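Appendix C: a fully annotated inverse folding record. The material below is reproduced so that readers can follow the format used throughout the book. The structure is listed first as tokens, followed by the designed sequence.
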């Protein structure tokens, strides 16, 4: 945050409430909820939130805010089962640029709700939202591998076979992060 220049940063850390609905199919989350808070709270009830896992792309560091990651789309380990994080928003309470507080969902302000899921950082401040939750999966596996650049073509050839042109099992999610690691790449 100390690198922000000519911008506005609004710290929502006090908006950190988490309330699981009585039907245990969704939860109301404050706009300042972080991944670690949500993971811990849902685990007590045997639940998970779509794409919010201790090892997901959006929460490899559990200090990531859920709303911000989800408003940008949000990839993760559960995306084959539950879609992107943005697909799991059911409703949002948003403060718009003119200071109005509006509710957006599939029935109310549906155009804004559609826009918020993927480009939401541009349209308002989410102060709370309703998010789908799911029964926890008892066992799953995650791995991280590093390859030198001369192996990338062979790695992607094998990944394409594994993914079977998008026909892989829903439980299988693969994604790639490109990073230059001199301790690996320069050898």
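Designed amino acids, in order:
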């Amino acid at each position: 945050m100390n690198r922000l220049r000519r911008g506005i940063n609004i710290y929502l850390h006090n908006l950190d409430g988490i309330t699981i609905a009585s039907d245990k199919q969704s939860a109301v989350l404050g706009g300042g909820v972080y991944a670690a808070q949500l993971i811990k709270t849902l685990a007590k009830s045997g639940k998970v939130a779509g794409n919010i896992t201790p090892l997901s792309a959006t929460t490899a560091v559990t200090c990531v805010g859920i709303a911000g990651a989800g408003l940008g789309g949000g990839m993760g380990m559960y995306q084959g089962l539950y879609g992107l994080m943005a697909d799991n928003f059911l409703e949002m309470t948003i403060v718009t640029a003119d200071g109005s507080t509006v509710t957006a969902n599939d029935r109310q302000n549906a155009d804004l709700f559609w826009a918020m899921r993927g480009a939401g950082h541009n349209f308002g401040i989410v102060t709370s939202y309703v998010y789908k939750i799911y029964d926890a999966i008892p066992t799953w596996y995650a791995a991280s591998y590093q390859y030198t650049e001369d192996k990338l073509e062979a790695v992607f050839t094998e990944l394409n076979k594994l993914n079977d042109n998008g026909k892989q099992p829903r439980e299988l999610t693969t994604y790639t992060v490109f990073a230059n690691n001199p301790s690996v790449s320069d050898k």
